[in-house]
Amino acid sequence: MIARSQNTACLTVAEEAEMTPAWKDYARYCHLREQGLRRQAFASLDLFIADALHWDFESQKAFVLWLCSKMDTVEDADYGPFPSPLRTRLFLPFFTEWLRSEPANDEAHALRARYLGEPLFYRRALEINPQNQRARRALAAACIGDIWNATHHLPHYFIGDEQEIKSVAEEARDHIAHIEQTDCRTLLSTELAQEEQLLDDWIAFQQESKEDFDAWCRSKGRHYSWVKAYYYDR
Q: Rounded to whole angstroms, how far apart are CA atoms 214 and 201?
C-alpha cells in the first residue's frame, strides 16, 4: 500500500506518459499501481521494460530524462513511478552506456548519483565541473545530514569524532558557497548554522569537562529540542 501523495504522483506521471504512444505500458503500470493492483501493474511494467531495452539510445534517453524531471518536480514521484525493476533493468544500463560514451558529461554523472543512489558520482561530476548545481546541493545536504546523525543522540552521547564532523561542516560550507540559487543557498546555510551550533557547543562542553550537557547549554542561553531516546534492557 502506498500513501496518498504517492498515488497522486502515479496519476500525475501517468497522465503525461500517456501522451507518448511508446510509453503506454508504463502509463498503464502507473494507473494500476495507483489502484493498488500491484501484480497487474508490474506485469505491465515488464512489458514496457522489455520493449524499452530494444529502443535506440536517444529514445531511452528521452524517457529517462523525462522521468528524472518528474521526480525532480512531482512530490513522491521517485517512489511509485520509479520502482526497483525500472531502476535496475533500464536506468542502470542506460547510465552505464551514457557515461561510457560521454565520460566528461558532469550532469550525467550527477543524475546517476541521484537516481541510482550512488553519491560517488556527485564527486565525479564536481571533478568535471565544480559548478554543477545538482551535485553541490546534494553534497551540501548530505554533509548537514552527517552532522545531524553525529549529534542527534545528544545530550546523552555523540556519535563519531568531533573534529572529523567539524571538517564535514567545512565541506558543507564550501558546497553551499558554490550554490547559485539564493533561496536554496540561504536555506542550506541556515540548516548548517543550526547543526554546527550544536556541534560547537558540544566541543566547548567537552573542553570544560562538565557532566550535564543539557544544563551547560541552558546556562549559555541555548535551548535545544532534543530527540527523545528510548533505551531497552534485555
A: 10
Q: How many other C-beta atoms can be found within 10 angstroms of the C-beta atom of residue 40?
A: 15
Locate the domains of the chain by residue range. Answer: 4-101, 139-219
Whether the pLDDT of residue 228 is over 80: the answer is: no
**In this structure, how many other beta carbons lie within 10 angstroms of the beta carbon of residue 125?**
26
Q: How confident is the model at residue 27 (pLDDT cuts 50, 70, 90)?
A: very high
Q: What is the predicted pLDDT for the residue at 233?
A: 53
pLDDT digit string, tens, across residues 166-207: 999 999 999 999 999 999 999 999 999 999 999 999 999 999
One-character DSSP codes across the chain = ---HHHHHHHHHHHHHHTTSGGGHHHHHHHHHHHTT-HHHHHHHHHHHHHHHTTS-HHHHHHHHHHHHHHHHHSTTTTTTTS-HHHIIIIIHHHHHHHHHH-TT-HHHHHHHHHHHT-THHHHHHHHH-TT-HHHHHHHHHHHHHHHHHHHTTTTT---S-HHHHHHHHHHHHHHHHT---HHHHHHHHHHHHHHHHHHHHHHHHHHHT-S-HHHHHHHTT----PPP------
Cα separation, 65 vs 144, in Å, equals: 28
pLDDT in tens, 90-139: 999 999 999 999 999 999 999 999 999 999 999 999 999 999 999 999 99
Q: Which residues contact 4 (CB under 8 A, 6 or more apart)?
A: none
